[in-house]
């Protein structure tokens, strides 16, 4: 093989892998075992965040523990599209092996994406507007000082 052919083959392989990555992510979001594992990790983390001091984090934890589909689906999608996950599970022949994603990978992705999903479903409220501060009152009117004759000597009278 000539050098140009090798580089061309490598580039083709890179393009093929990047195109397969989206297919792989799509397959992961439909894989029942992967969905179950992400749901389990999300539920476990919801138990941790139930005692968090941030109200919106607690609200998301409650949603997850109730089995609300929206937040759980968001965690599945963010986990499936996590860094390197698509490449890790891609078998190269159009199939996936979700078992190659470790429980540690899933736990890390759930923890890393908790804030993202919180903001999707329970956004942090904006800070309150500062109270209105009234304008200071106008200063009181001060009369002009009397005009004093600059000439100290009066004019003589006839």
Key words describing this protein structure:
mainly alpha; disordered N terminus; rod-shaped; 158 residues
Question: Explain this structure to me?
Answer:
The chain is mainly α and 158 residues long. The chain has one domain. The protein is built from six helices and no strands. It has helices at 3-29, 32-49, 55-66, 69-80, 85-89, 103-121. Helix 1 runs antiparallel to helix 4 (69-80) and helix 3 (55-66) packs across helix 6.
**Distance between the amino and carboxyl termini:** 131 Å
Q: How confident overall, as mean pLDDT?
A: 84
Please tell me how large the radius of gyration is: 35 Å
Helix content: 55-70%
Query: Major sheet, described briefly?
Result: none
Question: Helix/strand-derived class?
Answer: mainly alpha
Bulk shape = rod-shaped
- Total of domains: 1
Total helices: the number is: 6
By DSSP, the count of extended strands is: 0
Secondary-structure element series: HHHHHH
Task: Tell me the strand percentage band.
Answer: under 5%
Q: Could you list the spans in which at least 5 consecutive residues all have pLDDT below 50?
A: 1-20
């Amino acid at each position: 093989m000539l050098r140009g052919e090798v580089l061309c083959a490598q580039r083709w392989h890179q393009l093929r892998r990047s195109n397969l990555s989206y297919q792989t992510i799509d397959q992961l979001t439909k894989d029942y075992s992967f969905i179950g594992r992400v749901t389990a990790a999300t539920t476990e983390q919801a138990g941790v965040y139930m005692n968090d001091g941030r109200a919106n984090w607690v609200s998301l934890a409650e949603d997850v523990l109730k089995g609300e589909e929206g937040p759980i689906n968001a965690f599945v999608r963010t986990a499936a599209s996590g860094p390197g996950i698509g490449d890790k599970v891609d078998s190269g022949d159009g199939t996936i092996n979700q078992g190659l994603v470790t429980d540690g990978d899933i736990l890390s992705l759930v923890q890393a994406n908790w804030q993202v999903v919180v903001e999707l479903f329970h956004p942090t409220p904006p800070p309150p507007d500062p109270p209105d501060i009234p304008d200071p009152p106008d200063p009181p009117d001060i009369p002009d000082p009397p005009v004093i004759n600059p000439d100290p000597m009066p004019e003589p009278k006839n």
